[in-house]
Amino acid sequence: MTHDTVTDTPSTTGAGEGEHPSTARLIGLDLARGLAVFGMYAVHVGPDPSKGGVVGFLMGLAQGRSSALFAVLAGVAVALITGRRTPKTGLAGRQAVVKVIIRAVILMALGTALTMTGTPVVPILAFYGLFFLLVLPLYRLGAKPLALIAVGWALAGPPLLYVLRPVVGDRSFPTVGHADGLGSLLFTGGYPALTWVPFVIAGMAVARLDLAAIAVRIRLALTGVALAVTGYGGSWLALRLVPGAADALREAQGGSGMSSSASSSPDGFGFFSGTPAGLLDASPHSEATLSIVGNTGVAILVLAVCLAAIDALPRLRRLAGPVIAVGSMSLSAYVFHIAAIWLLGIGGIGSQPLYVLLGFIASVTVLATVWSRFFQRGPLEWVIGRATRLARRVQ
Predict the structure, then answer these.
(1) On the chain, which terminus has fewer CB atoms closer than 10 Å, C or N?
(2) Cβ neighbours of residue 117 closer than 8 Å, sequence gap 6 or more
(3) Quick check: is 183 in a domain?
(4) Contact 61/366 with Cβ under 8 angstroms?
(5) How many CA atoms lie within 13 A of 338 on its CB side?
(6) pLDDT at 3 > cutoff 60
(7) What is this structure's pTM?
(8) How far, in Å, CA of 26 to CA of 37, rounded?
(9) Using CA atoms, how far apart are residues 365 and 362, in angstroms rounded to an integer?
(10) CB atoms < 10 A from the CB of 207, how many?
(11) 96, part of any domain
(12) From residue 128, how far is each of 64, 111, 155, 196, 215 by CA, in Å?
């Protein structure tokens, strides 16, 4: 989430560093973040997707894909902080690295605090913090090598996780002062780094491109469609062409389409469904390669469409203003909904009536819209902005 937790706002990422970026580019990112926030709300306080109908279909779309969009946007944020198309070097590079590290530490602390509330939601923030640290050594690379690394990681990560996860144990949550904390973040948690870092690297690759160019946006949109078709379509074909794969997966899921290890994933789906056939599965949080490919494609497509739409349709900026406001303070919006779940005692992911979801969305939209009229940053975004000023001391 990809959040503004990890990126500077339009007022702090442009002039002064020799660049004059298109404002629409940055607003398009905020629009994508706002949509990702609403998607996460749908997953955590929305109705059960299995109920069908238009609402069920929309809830199903949010499963896994909204968190993947957040992760891709997180990679975009890392690239923005470290130099956009041209990575920073020298003193500027060192200070940018420290900024990312400070953000990572704050996110891990926030994520741990949210986990300790005991809500049914698996907070993604602690995982995000680790993601930033893991991808930081790659910040000087260009779009092509980053894309190749993302592909390689997406191919190798899931099989490796399938082998290692039973060894390190089935523990889902990051903890404080406990030996399995890092193991959870890397292997057994709701967003294991071994299979989620490719999203972040893909986002970094996207941000290294000239996002103001129409041709680049078109290529990104086409790439997103191709990846989505490859991931979801490839899974559909594989489960039908590989002998016994579909039956094994169905049996492991108890015939319900949901893994028996559902408690280990944030959206109610388990890792690989407990069978090797799960490595061919593209369902939400299957952690399989084809799932990563498909979800990355959707995230890139959404990002390309948001950037293009804000640029090409001036009226959309005003109409989508409330969503953009939410996206500009996505960290605060994310923490808000988990705090509200805790205070209201809401239990059970995917079991709430539609009015609960609409209430959450309406509340955060009103709060963000009003806040943005008086402040450039959300409250938590302001705190992180202040904290990263420490990077100026680096020489």
Answers:
(1) C
(2) 338, 339, 342
(3) yes
(4) no
(5) 24
(6) no
(7) 0.88
(8) 17
(9) 5
(10) 27
(11) yes
(12) 15, 9, 21, 9, 31
Which residues lie closer than 8 Å to 30 by C-beta, 6 or more apart?
4, 10, 324, 325, 327, 328
Model pLDDT for residues 256-291, shown as the tens digit of each residue? 444 333 334 554 445 676 788 889 999 888 899 999
Query: What mean pLDDT comes out for the span 154-170?
Result: 84
* pLDDT given at position 17: 33
In a domain, 254, yes or no: no
Query: Is residue 211 a contact partner of residue 23, using CB atoms and an 8 Å limit?
Result: no
Which residues span the domain enclosing 62?
Answer: 23-222+322-393
Residues 333 and 70: beta-carbon distance below 8 Å: no
Closest to 324 in 3D by CA, of 62, 6, 9:
9
What's at 131, amino acid-wise? F
Residue identified by tokens 């500077």 is 8
Whats the size of the chain, residue-wise? 395
Instruction: Tell me what the mean pLDDT of segment 352-378 comes to.
Output: 95
* Residue 244 in domain: no
For the segment 117-140, what is each residue's pLDDT rounded down to a tens digit? 989 998 999 999 999 999 999 999
Q: Which residue has the higher pLDDT, 308 or 164?
A: 308
- The CA angle 279-283-285, to the nearest 5 degrees, is 80
CA distance 146 to 208: 9
Residue 250: both structure tokens together: 């169905």
Residues 6 or more apart whose Cβ sits within 8 Å of residue 60: 49
Count the domains in the chain: 1
- End-to-end, the C-alpha distance of the chain in Å comes to 30
